[in-house]
Amino acid sequence: MKNNVTVGLTGPTGAGKSTVAGLLREHGFAVIDADYIAREITLPGSPVLTELAGAFGTDILNTGVLDRAKLAERAFSTPERTQTLNAITHPHIVRRMEEERENVFRSGARVAVMDGAQLFEAGADRICDLVAVVTAPDDVRLARLIRRDGLPVEKLKERMAAQLPRSCYEERADIIIRNYPPFLLEQELGPLYEKIEEALT
Question: What's the pTM?
Fold first, then answer.
């Protein structure tokens, strides 16, 4: 029996990871959001900003504030630039996620969900007891991104191409959550809940 369990939650953009994270939070699990932490570590005055400006150009900063749209346009334009972004930000993000996990466990939580789109790339899966991957076909993901982000299709395809292929996510998953018709999301979460309960009992 384990006193607590760390669950990694990841998946390619547009698959619906945030929707699943919301359901897990409603279920009573502590969710640690890597996107939120990524914003925290790039607040004005952060040394991370200096590193990013050196790699992607000082004009990504506007009076010391990060222009996230400009950074994203450059960082996701090629896989190589995405790797550069990851090399700068991932160590800081993973360290903060570990700190947050210890905080929620000390507060009495038994399940911590590490919610991160770049979980594998950051190596954060190594600190998880099990990893759940949210998946959906490319055409479904693209349609969702068009509705959500309103960016040109080619830009969205660039971002999708900069991520790991769907097969890489699925091969490294302990649980695959299919978030597309005809599958029902609540039913897809059942095996994850069962694995967590098994680990805790």
Answer: 0.88
